Amino acid sequence: MRTEYLKITLLICLVSASWLMTPAHAQRRKDRDKQEVKEEGVMTRLEGESMATEGMKFMMKDEPDRALPIFEKLALVSPQDAAAHYLVATALIKLEKYDDAINASKKAHDLDKENIFYSQQLAELYAKRRKYSEAAQIYETLVAKNPENIEYGIELAAVYVFADQFDKAIETYNKLEKSMGVTEEITHQKQQLYLRQNNLDKALAEGKKLIEAEPGEVSYRVELAEMLIANDRIVEAVAPLEEALKINPDEAQAHVLLADIYRRNGDVQKCNQELKQVFANPNLDADPKIRVLSGYLTMLKTENEVIEAVSLARQLAETHPNEAKATVIYADLLTRQGKLAEARQLYLKAVASDPNVFQVWGAIMQLDGQLNQPDSMLVHSEKALELFPNQGMFWYFNGTAHLMKKNYKEATSSLEESLKMIGENPQLVPLIHAQLGDAFNGIGEHDKSDAAYDLALKADPDNDHVLNNYSYFLSLRKEKLDLALKMSEKLVQQHQNNPTYLDTYAWVLYIRKDYKKAKEFLEKAMQDSSGVSGTIVEHYGDVLFKLGERDNAVAQWKKAKRMGETTELLDKKIATGALHEQ
């Protein structure tokens, strides 16, 4: 604001001065003529000052649209006065009418080429309108006349850069450097230009020159190493990093870069040593640590290396507790170790800090499923859907949670929504159809259930879940028993020792009245006591009753009651000693 005020004050002074000048020869006229001319001159000066002052008041109130017509009238009355045209250009610039401003500014400059303010205004306008050659000509003149003014040289170099005249820009920076000495700003500009010219060696030479100018500045050595690393000159980067650490052993970025180099070379031990020195340093940003640790994780081969990585990740997460990425890396490693509950807590902490990363929400719900916690999955999926309502995967998790809780109607709604958004995903679509088959069956819409299962099997004919549930539900309905037999038979051929699948096959045989064969497969299912459920034992009792082994059947029913997971008719079977089918 003060700069603008000074500029406006300067404009008032420039304009006022133009109307204070009175021609010397007027003093030699006759008295009468002299008096008339004097009176006319006074009027012109006063009018000019008054108009300029009025216009500048509007400029100071940031009302250039009201100032412009006043300045234009001023320029019309005094077309040979440079200051008037300068004022017009100034108002037009405020109104962002740059092409018109150029015309006015050029008139001011042409009328008074010695005025540096007029020259600078026109040069800036040329640069803004990408008339770089015109801008360069003016700045070249300004630099020649005012070599001590560093600003003109910097502006000239910038114009050359915009015009892709990198050699001229570098030459200008070199001249500035002779006046100013080696500076960080100019050196960095020259390095960028050399890199744009694919001249890495000269860019590196500039970096070394900066180090020589300030040998105690550690950051310049680190910058040189970063440039070398970025251009795959890894070996050369080690020396400046080691020099930096001699000057300051706590220079964290140097340790990080060395760790990155060792990672690239496959030296896990040295990489780990460097990382340990920096991960506890709270003064170093988390991002470079995360980048190096992420790369380090791709090198892990042994269990001991994983344990070391977990230690580093824990240290990183503790040092940067509010950095969600650090927390996620730690959670990823715990998941890899099978510590699912701990990992989920960390993922939840991460979304509390940054809820906008949908992948983390997906990891949370994945763990909900693995931990068999549908209530948690339901809560988390609903929260995620508030943030990402168009994520089909989250609708899938939501539908799965409802299905696990036997909220079949809500499950079908969410799963169908998921199907709309997933598109043609060949891995997920069959899973959704499989879940829809279960959900539609739960609400008794058997045609839709069968259709969903058929679509799932079309995409994945060996889907265990579908083969099992589809065949079992058909057997309960006593429908399409040939299809049920075919599917369940295929299932036990592929999984000969799975108690659940053996039970499904046996039950299909039972419904088809093949009791002897059903007994055979149920007895096989019960050989693995760890996988035997009350349902299997109750089915075994039913088969025994059909084969005339009433006492043995009642004994199996009583055993099934103690185990749980049975039908509603079990108590009646035990009480009456007879089979009561649904």
From TrEMBL:
Matches recorded under SUPFAM superfamilies: HCP-like, TPR-like
Annotated TPR repeat ranges: 82-115, 116-149, 430-463
Keyword field: Signal, TPR repeat
Entry-linked InterPro entries: TPR-like_helical_dom_sf, TPR_rpt
Gene3D superfamilies from the UniProt entry: Tetratricopeptide repeat domain (1.25.40.10)
SMART domains referenced in this protein's UniProt entry, alphabetically: TPR
First and last residue of the signal peptide: 1-26
Lipoprotein recorded as keyword: no
Pfam families with a match to the protein in the record: ANAPC3 (PF12895), TPR_16 (PF13432), TPR_19 (PF14559), TPR_8 (PF13181)
Stated name of the protein: Lipopolysaccharide biosynthesis regulator YciM, contains six TPR domains and a predicted metal-binding C-terminal domain
Lineage: Bacteria, Pseudomonadati, Bacteroidota, Cytophagia, Cytophagales
